[in-house]
Amino acid sequence: MSSENSGTTNNTWQPDPAWDYYTLWHDLIHIKAKIDQALNRMKNVKEFDREVHEDLSDILQPASSSLIQIIDIELTQEFDDDDDE
Predict the structure, then answer these.
(1) Would you tell me which of 5, 25, 35, 71 could form a disulfide with 16, CB atoms 3.0–4.6 Å apart?
(2) Origin, by domain of life (predicted)?
(3) Does the CA dihedral 12-16-20-22 come out positive or negative?
(4) DSSP secondary structure of 21-58
(5) What whole-number distance in Å separates Cα of residue 84 and Cα of residue 49?
(6) Strand 12-14 to strand 7-9: parallel, antiparallel, or no bridges (unpaired)?
(7) What does the pLDDT look like over 2-13, one tens digit per residue?
(8) CA distances from 69 to 12, 45, 66 (A)
(9) CA distance 47 to 81
(10) Degrees to nearest 5, angle at CA 12 with 16 and 6
(11) Entry pTM
């Protein structure tokens, strides 16, 4: 990956789109944003609140599904190693 095209935008490192992990990185950044959104939603709540609980579920469920898909599909793919003899 070339660092020449990499930069920082909004305090988030921006990789070169030609990087092999670019798509995975991008997907994980979106999942992280949902987790951050949930943390921000709950940080000022003092006691259990059903509406907040439902909001958190609505925010995190798609992120959870996406993360599980990444782990189950993208990270378990077998690749040909150039080192195989």
Answers:
(1) 5
(2) Bacteria
(3) positive
(4) THHHHHHHHHHHHHHHHHHHHHTT--S--HHHHHHHHH
(5) 56
(6) antiparallel
(7) 444 466 666 778
(8) 24, 31, 5
(9) 52
(10) 25
(11) 0.73
